[in-house]
Task: structure prediction
Amino acid sequence: MSTLSPVSPNSATGVGTLKAPDAGPELPAQRDRPFSRANLVQTLAGGYIPLIVATLVVVLPLLWMLLSSFKQPGEIVTTDLKILPQGLNLENYHTAMTTVPFARFFLNSLIVTTVGSTVKVILAILTAYALVFVRFPFKNVIFVVILVALMVPPQVSILPNYILIAGIGGKNTLWGIILPGLGTAFGTFLLRQHFKTLPGSILEAAEIDGAGHWRRLWQVVVPVSLPSIATVALVTVVSEWNDYIWPLIITDRPETMTLPVGLTLLQNSEGNGAGWGILMAGAVLVIIPILLVFAALQRYIVAGLTQGSVTG
Amino acid sequence: MTRQLTGSPAAPAQAVQAPQRRGRWSGRTRRDFFVFLALALPNLALIAVFTYLPLVNNMYYSTLDWTLGSTSATVVGFDNYINFFTSSDAPQVLGTTVIFTVVTVGGSMVLGLLVALALNAKVRGTTFARSAVFAPYVLSGVGVGLVWLFIFDPGYGVLSWLLRGIGQQSPQWINDPQLSLVMVIIVYVWKNLGYCAVVYLAGLQSLPKDVMEAASLDGANGFRRFMSISVPLLSPTTFFLLITTMISSLQAFDLIRIMTPLGNGTSTLIYEAYLQAFGAYNRAGYSAAISVVLFAILLIITVLQLRFVERKVHYS
Result:
């Protein structure tokens, strides 16, 4: 872990500051004759073309999904491919919503994601605060327990958790979907690492003022840690929204299905050529919310998901 | 930043505090003990019940001959493991797991590095491209799987249309087990290479610039600099990615389930465990045994990572 740390100072904090002095010696060489043909070709081949290709490979399938969601069966079941739909026809969305209770799936996903993420973020804040700022004899042992939990893949636990949750009546309930995922090793780990970097002086000042743990946590630690908390919250929201294997197993009635599971149900009923437009409309409803969240707040999400690569 | 802040004000504060603290040591310690439990216990209990307990239970279930939903089970010891490893399933499932893992890990790392190089170019638009390339990594596997299933559709998919354009018939991606595996691998790499690209990009941006300049003054061209300096210096990043992508490939479920529900040709260990318990068979004990095998493999990778991380990737 420590060996990876030489990477971190440069990439995490130094990007902005390091670039300025380094750009100095490089720029004059490049700017010899900025508009020469050789230079232009090199910029295109070495810079823009690979960049555009990489972007298109990602964007085109998603664009295709969006365009196809507006197409009528006649526009899809044809050998004569048309790229643009005839119009912004929302009939596929209507069909998707009426074939299966899509509005219900959407609401269920919203509830599971909101409740699950809120509880997980609060638990992560409380546990991380306790691990960093509260005296306790076995803190290192507890931290190792959390670290190991971080490495246990949830997929391995689905059968025992199914038996446990179904045994206490959680099958086909929203709490049954939410409960097993509530313990959070990832959020605790990430926030603990952040809390450790906080200057002790600000907490000691609050302590001298007579603030107890509860006030120190919410009035000092949380306000100065909002970016890290946002990172944990957003990564949690994304994974709760996309979670598939557990809701798939613990629900078999449409009333409690989440969007990804409901989409599987839609796939079963529309799994013929004419149904592709309807399925693409369903895919849009699952993908677009997260895509919008990602577009707005991607800095935090990327930082959270690539955690460990730069911090070790 | 933080270091500057801790410097001056902290020291006097501690000096003032020290005698005060010692005076009420025992009362405070006891109070902190309960504060700690109140704050951490809910999370720790949840982790214990839903992460650690299942590991133990899985090992127990794996010794049972037990149909899911049935109230009776017989203890059969290691029979489930023996049955799995001696059945015709084992070479099939293990082979598929190895192919899927090796190709997806290799594919997303190599393509990820190439994309990272493109993102590292000094041109406009890299910020947008970086976000775009990373986006599939955060999208629902179910949604992504459906979109690609439509693209691969032999009748009406874009791919079949493109193939017809060059006079080719679309292969039967769904019905042919080998092609199913190829299809799922392609989509998995598409979804995950952005993660590798962004991690590699951070690595590339932290490479020492002076070394690069010295090499280019010595007459090394771009390719030579890449092979002799960038690649070796990126080895910590490569090792990190190797471990993380291997662990996530071994857990890949969503795409396999949505694109090839029957697991025909695509049944990796995790999918076989799912099919055995929740598919047509309801063989809970057998499924648990496969889960334990998968867990053992993941554990070995994690331990190897911890053992080799110090030795292999030191470059300072």
